[in-house]
Amino acid sequence: MFIKSQHIYLRALDSSDLDLIYLLENDMSIWQISNTIAPFSKDIIQLYLQSAQQDIYTNKQLRLLICLNETNQPIGTIDLFEFDPMNLRVGVGILIFESYRNNGYAIESIEVIKQYTKSVLILNQLYCNINATNYESIKLFEKCGFEKIGLKKQWNRVSLNQFEDEIMYQLIFN
Fold first, then answer.
1. Which residues pair with 65 in a beta bridge?
2. For position 96, what pLDDT does the model report?
3. If you placed Cys at 93, which of 9, 45, 79, 173 could pair as Cys (CB 3.0 to 4.6 Å)?
4. pLDDT greater than 50 at residue 111
5. How many Å apart are CA 174 and CA 131, to the nearest integer?
6. Domains of the chain as residue ranges with CATH
């Protein structure tokens, strides 16, 4: 196990996660959130899983599986991205699989990753960017102490001629 709390633990990806990550990365319903525009092959995912074993200082990112303590069942992912060791900050994103939502697992996962980034990585801050109509994520990150710091107007294209604003959130530890 990697990082544990009352109901969940976070663990590194390994080769046994190939099918799960393949399905997740090719789920078109979340492409807008992840800025994905094309499907991934299993070969590409396998290469990604091999490089995911490197530490965050090498890759500048870290994806962890969120798993239930009692069953070891994966219920989502939490990502650290755009790691900036010079300025002691990293972006964070989370996805809880639909059938496990509204059980407090997202809050618990963010609280665990906050502790990890503050105590182990010794970072100064976390940040995230959320589409303005993603009300569940806005509520989640605000509940976890993130503050709205800005608005990027018409930042993300959601259809041919339609754009959506993106809200910037930040959590400073000190």
1. 11, 77
2. 95
3. 79
4. yes
5. 27
6. 3-172 (3.40.630.30)
